[in-house]
Structure formats: C-alpha cells, structure tokens
Amino acid sequence: MSIFEMAVKRRQLEENPLRYIKMPKCPENEIHIYSDAECQRIVKAALELTEKSNEQKKPKLNLMIIVALSTALRRGEILNCTWRSITP
Q: 53 in helix, strand or coil?
C-alpha cells in the first residue's frame, strides 16, 4: 500500500494524487549479461574490422565497444562524448 492510499484511508487526503500515473514498463525479457568470453569476441571482431578499414576516417570501433561494455553508456552517449564531458 502506498503512502497516498494510506492517507486517503486515514482521511488525510481526499484522493490519491498519483492515481492516474501509470507504472513504468518493466522489460518482459530477461536481461542478458555478456560473459567475459563474449566480450572478448566482440572486441576482437571490432578490432579486426577497424584494422581493415581506413583508420583516418573511421573511429576505433574496438575502443568504443570497450567503453560501452565498461560503462553501460548508450551508443548516442558514447558518440557524443568529448574530453570535456569526462574531465572536471
């Protein structure tokens, strides 16, 4: 029972102010956590792809993947990250 429902029952509030707010959606699927072996394979594949590409024009994919796996940042957050975002 929420605090607001209890306050309504005690007649401290006329109605629950949160009654029309929907509960947040919970993921239906189980969350998959990559094993160390899976992380190593992902980084290895990214490193191989980066080595084959033109390094002047493409970002180092393996470094971005390591950051993603280490920090749980989303793709957009990583791509928009600058040194100023990181340093105080």
A: coil
